[in-house]
Amino acid sequence: MADKVMLTNRIVLRSIMPLFKVLYEADYMSVRKLLGKYDGVIQFCIKGTDTGAYLEFKNGGLEVLQGIHPNPDVVLPFKHAAGMNALFTGGVPAFGGFPKGLYKITLVGKLLLLMLGLLLLMPNVNPKEPAKRELKVKMIMYMITNALSQLNKGGDEDMMVWTGKQPDRIYQMSVDPDGPAAYLRIKGGKTKAGHGKYTRKAPFVHMRFNGIEGAYKVLGESKDTVSATSDGDIKLEGSPEYAGVMGSFMMRIQDMLMPPKK
Q1: Residue 97 near residue 104, CB atoms below 8 Å
Q2: 0.90 cut: is pTM over it?
Q3: Is 90 exceeded by the pLDDT of residue 34?
Q4: What is the average per-residue pLDDT within 94-103?
Q5: Pseudo-torsion of CA 236, 214, 146, 241, nearest 10°?
Q6: Contacts (Cβ under 8 Å, ≥6 apart) of 119
Q7: Scanning 14, 25, 204, 210, which has the fewest C-beta atoms within 10 Å of its C-beta?
Q8: CA distance 90 to 219
Q9: How far apart are CA 24 and CA 59, in angstroms?
Q10: pLDDT band at residue 52, thresholds of 50, 70 and 90?
């Protein structure tokens, strides 16, 4: 059985941390405008292991890469995977030592602004500006499809059984008419997530949202699918049975990323 803490950590590193790049490119909270000229590397790692990911700011851009950088400017070491997970799921992080490089104010400032940007994903954060609502929808779509793939790659037994039985299939999410889109490709037990619309074959399941507001009600405000379908916020094309199973895995991921109960 896959270790839940390590599986959650895999989703944190590979599905949530890449959202820093989405925030940065959208210039959410003006972080790129204010601090874009300052380059450097910020490392997140679990102390004593090769598990980690880092943010590389270079030439005004940002890349989020897996692994350990040989010479990072700022290092945030965590005591264990659960300690890192807590930082991204509303818990109390457990550091494995004092963070290094905190005197590099510009990089630390970037990180703080980006961490604040991630709060946009929280259910109780409901921006009014259309651009921010679209950004939240985009981030949730990217995170969900990637996390579904990581659930499979990380060894979730139920997910592996489900994907192992399927031929080459595309599970597409998109906002009509030309809004954000993301997909999950499943092929014989292997999975891969991507941004945009998959164009090489028709989707097996296609969740089409009626504009940003339709998508926001479902993804941002957790409106149930039955009501959303009845109200015209979402249109499901393809197999309802398989869409339902995918929805149950999405709920499992949501539970993994919820703050710990007090």
Answers
A1: no
A2: yes
A3: no
A4: 96
A5: -20
A6: 125
A7: 25
A8: 19
A9: 13
A10: very high
